[in-house]
Specification:
Layout (H helix, E strand, L loop, with lengths): L1 H16 L47 H11 L1 H22 L4 E13 L15 E16 L4 H68 L4 H35 L29 H4 L1 H21 L5 E5 L7 E5 L11 E3 L2 E5 L7 H67 L5 H35 L6 H4 L15
Length: 494
């Protein structure tokens, strides 16, 4: 056993001295511009997969949205799948790193057997005898792969990178879930507000229909006036039904996201106030810290790089050090249980085996090429992900700024249309203008009111889009960097 321990120490020293084959991982450069448009200062930033992602949905200060997100994080099935995949990846790390250490097993056996007297002779002139005897054995088996060429270490390295990728995938699933929920919720809110506008307009149109009907009965309004107002009422009622169908569809989508059957889910009729947040954009390199999909693509490259080393290690022999390769060859063996642990019953053996592939018809070479091509593909995916992230942030920045200007114009247009409608109604009732002026003003007011509601809804959708494009949260350190703010509240939690 002392000799086995010495051999293990020597094997471990040889393993430590050996170098792992295959390239060491270095993150490829991604083409990132120095600033967004408009310009912002440049600073270096390394990928930070584990940066704390904030509860970004609280930026909107909506007391109805917050509990919905909490329910989704607790009950969404896609998120549970991602969590299970993450745990599997962590288990794979344990499996891969366990090969860096010796495997020890303990076996015990008891047998009684009879040896044939007619068995082949071991020596001529010495006759065989039939023997009946017991065989008791107890002892450990220790096996250890001497990782001189780094195959096991590369496997462990790849498993760790894959686990980090799974963690980034989990964070990305969480980000996509919360962003989709917030987007659907604000779309639902926009439809509720638009329904309120159409319903209010419909009530006014029905009042106008009653007024015109009375005038028609008295002979002061034409049949054309009455038919036009009735058509306007019918059109608004149809639009109201269509909007309600869309509202119900978004409500059902939210129910699925939070993990609740659609028939048993409903949102409150009274909506709390929401505020459009200020979003610190930072600089382009922040995406390498914030976006979990970028982190996942980068970790995928690291795992692919490690697989190159695993493939190249097949060019070198596998060396196994152990106390026995077919049965336990360390411990005690005796034909009598009473003498099993006596000194003469002790046994041990230490072995070293090496296996080298001599011919495999190009299999190893093809595996190395395959691993290199897999890494090249991972690099391309990473760079494509970074480019897509840049596009999404630029779209979010320009879109949110444009919508802020559009919202101001839409609100002004509603005020102007309301004044025109009030004036046209008064002039029609006073007999100054025809009904055509009043109904035209009425249609313009409804159109402008709906447009204003839609623009404000698009502002919230664009804000969610930009938050998602930026990675969904900010650490305290990144919040303190120089950033540009978009229109809205200046609150930002740590």
């Amino acid at each position: 056993m002392r000799a086995a321990a010495i051999a293990m120490v020597l094997g471990g020293a040889g393993c430590a001295a050996g170098c792992a084959v295959g390239p060491d991982y270095r993150k490829p450069a991604a083409d990132t511009p120095p600033a967004w448009q408009p310009a912002a200062p440049w600073h270096e930033a390394a990928p930070n997969d584990t940066a704390l992602k904030g509860e970004w949905w609280r930026l909107f200060e909506d007391d109805a949205l917050n509990p919905l997100v909490e329910r989704a994080l607790a009950g969404n099935q896609d998120l549970r799948v991602a969590a299970a995949r993450l745990e599997q990846a962590r288990d794979q790390v344990t499996i891969a790193t366990s090969n860096l250490f010796p495997s020890v097993s303990l076996s015990a056996g008891a047998a009684r057997g009879r040896v044939s007297a007619n068995r082949p002779l071991a020596e001529y002139g010495v006759p065989n005898q039939s023997t009946v005897q017991n065989n008791f054995a107890l002892g450990p088996s220790v096996n250890y792969e001497v990782d001189l060429f780094g195959r096991v270490r590369r496997e462990a390295e790849g498993a760790r990178a894959s686990a980090q990728q799974a963690e980034a995938d989990y964070q990305n699933t969480r980000l996509v879930l919360t962003a989709q929920l917030a987007s659907d919720y604000f779309a639902w809110r926009e439809l509720v507000a638009e329904i309120a506008v159409v319903r209010n307009s419909l009530e006014l149109q029905r009042d106008a229909l009653g007024f015109i009907t009375s005038r028609h009965d008295l002979g002061f309004a034409t049949g054309l006036d009455l038919a036009q107002q009735q058509a306007l009422v019918d059109s608004s009622a149809t639009q109201l039904e269509l909007l309600d169908v869309q509202r119900a569809e978004y409500e059902h989508a939210i129910a699925t996201l939070v993990g609740t059957p659609a028939p048993s889910f409903s949102l409150p009729a009274a909506l709390p106030a929401s505020s459009l947040p200020s979003i610190p954009v930072g600089v382009p390199s922040d995406l390498l810290q914030r976006r979990p999909d970028v982190a996942s693509a980068e970790r995928s490259m690291a795992a692919a790089n490690a697989r190159i080393g695993v493939a190249r290690a097949a060019y070198y022999p596998d060396i196994l050090l152990g106390t026995g390769f077919s049965e336990p060859n360390a411990g005690w063996q005796s034909r009598a249980l009473a003498t099993l642990f006596e000194a003469p019953s002790r046994l041990w053996s230490v072995g070293l085996s090496a296996t080298q592939t001599v011919f495999d018809a190009g299999k190893t070479r093809a595996n190395v090429r395959f691993a290199n091509e897999d890494y090249d593909a991972a690099v391309a995916v990473y760079r494509r992900t970074v480019l897509g992230a840049m596009e999404e942030v630029e779209n979010g920045i320009t879109g949110l700024a444009s919508l802020d200007r559009a919202a101001t114009q839409a609100d002004a247009s509603v005020q102007s249309a309301q004044q025109a409608f009030d004036l046209a109604t008064a002039r029609y009732k006073g007999g100054v203008d025809t009904y055509l002026e009043m109904i035209t003003a009425q249609q313009v007011l409804l159109s402008n009111q709906r447009q204003a509601v839609q623009v404000h809804g698009q502002q919230f959708a664009a804000a969610v889009y930009l938050v998602k494009a930026l990675g969904g949260g900010w650490s305290v350190q990144s919040d303190r960097r120089v950033s540009q703010s978009l229109p809205g509240s200046d609150r930002l939690p740590d």
